[in-house]
Design goal:
The protein has one domain (2-174): Rossmann fold, CATH 3.40.50.300. It is built from eight helices and five strands, in the order βαβαααβαβααβα. It has helices at 10-21, 28-37, 41-51, 58-71, 87-99, 113-127, 134-157, 170-180; strands at 2-4, 24-27, 78-81, 106-110, 161-165. A three-stranded parallel beta sheet has the order 1-4-5, with helices on both faces. A two-stranded parallel sheet has the order 2-3. It starts with a strand and ends with a helix.
């Protein structure tokens, strides 16, 4: 599981890791963007929330990734990108993983806020992402600060967190992820 600030490289590192270990990848953000593109009440509500920089409610985010965990057979590898952005999600993820049992590691890509700010503004331009406006980014950073420190603490407390310097070049981060997971 990749966790970190918005723009910390979670998606990039999740893809690289999934390719390396032959895993499926699950992106909460991609799931929410797909729902937001739908012409349903839920889709419109999610779209409004995303464009406003809001995190999805923990119960909705948990439902989205729980479906994926439950549909994944034992022995099938799975990399999560963007799951567990609130402490209740992290606690529930841990409980589900213990019950199944399905061991996991939360990889925290630690990148300074100033750097991810620049990355997100660049991404907004390159990908024309409507949810990467300056106002939305600022709100997501505020949400991250309020909620994600508890997530990091929850995984650290359970002994399932490894921290990687995400401010390095992509390949260096990837190599450090592999080392942290003892895959190199």
């Amino acid at each position: 599981m990749m966790i970190g600030r918005p723009g910390s490289g979670k998606g990039t590192q999740a893809k690289l890791l999934a390719q390396k270990i032959g895993a499926n990848i699950f992106s909460s953000g991609e799931e929410f963007r797909a729902l937001a593109a739908g012409a349903t009440y839920l889709g419109r509500r999610i779209k409004d929330a995303m464009e406003g920089g809001e995190l999805m409610p923990h119960w909705l985010a948990s439902y989205i990734y729980e479906k994926e965990i439950f549909a994944t057979e034992p022995g099938q590898k799975l990399v999560f990108e963007g799951a567990c952005r609130t402490e209740p999600e992290a606690v529930l993820f841990h409980e589900i993983s213990l019950w199944l049992p399905r061991p996991y590691v939360a990889v925290y890509l630690n990148v300074p806020e100033e750097e991810v700010w620049q990355r997100l503004l660049k991404r907004a331009t390159l990908e024309s992402r409507k949810d990467d406006t300056e106002e939305a980014i600022r709100k997501r950073f505020d949400e991250y600060t309020k909620k994600n420190e508890a997530v990091i603490g929850a995984f650290r407390e359970r002994g399932t967190l490894v921290e990687v310097n995400g401010a390095q070049p992509i390949e260096a981060v990837h190599q450090d992820v592999l080392k942290a997971l003892t895959l190199s």
